[in-house]
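Many introductory courses stop at the sequence. We go one step further.
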Amino acid sequence: MRIPSLSRFVVSGPAWISAGCVLTFALASGALRSMSSAEEAAGTREIDGEETPAVEADETTVAARAFAPSITLRSDDPGFVRLGEDDFVNVNCEPDTWTWKDGVAHSTGKPIGVLRTKDVVRNFELLVEWRHLTSGGNSGVFVWASPESIAMLERGEGRLPHGIEVQVLDHGYTAQYESQTGKKADWFTTHGDVFPTGPARMKPFPPVSPNGERSFPSKERSKPTPEWNQYYIRAINGEVRLWVNGEEVSGGTECKPATGYLCLESEGAPVEFRNIFLRVLP
């Protein structure tokens, strides 16, 4: 299901917001339609036949002017479930690699490995906030990690699953890579690359990496350590789309596999995840 860019669309119906964060995406359950020129000029939108102010300012709503001037987000969107410690399984990390406190998952980054969800998912929306605690930190969120690759990791074979990775990379990684290798960091970015791992396959949305495998972000939206970033990942019928801090930036289609586990990655440096919400779709 291809859904166009949301830069001129509005949402009717509830959506989701995390305290302290400006979220600027439209959710699949909302009624999505194009905004008319008259509405843009007037700063209003029509919902169920009634003209409504495009921006409703209260403690649970926020307008995303830079992204879509008339998107109003609410905290009570139905279907989202908060995920916590009991919803994840340690696949191949040490017992003390991951700890949870006050709803925040902290990873030491060592050894390299993942947590996985207890259940396999197919179509879904995922909301997650993350931050690195050191410059140059590396991590990721795996989408549709195959059960076969998870079983291999559980047997001690390999370190990371096969699926679609949504990279979580701090800006300092670029300088570290170039200093350590003497090569230009032109095959990755630090703003939300999406790419397949192992035998998984994906047709990336442009712009793409030099080897044609990664979807590079169309905008530079992520913030450096120790600031929090927010990812909204929508995965439907083999297509993955990523919003970084409110704006859609990258993704791909024709993903194989298109079902599997969701994973949080430990990869060498301390990282934290919080406000993890999942909505399973038909």
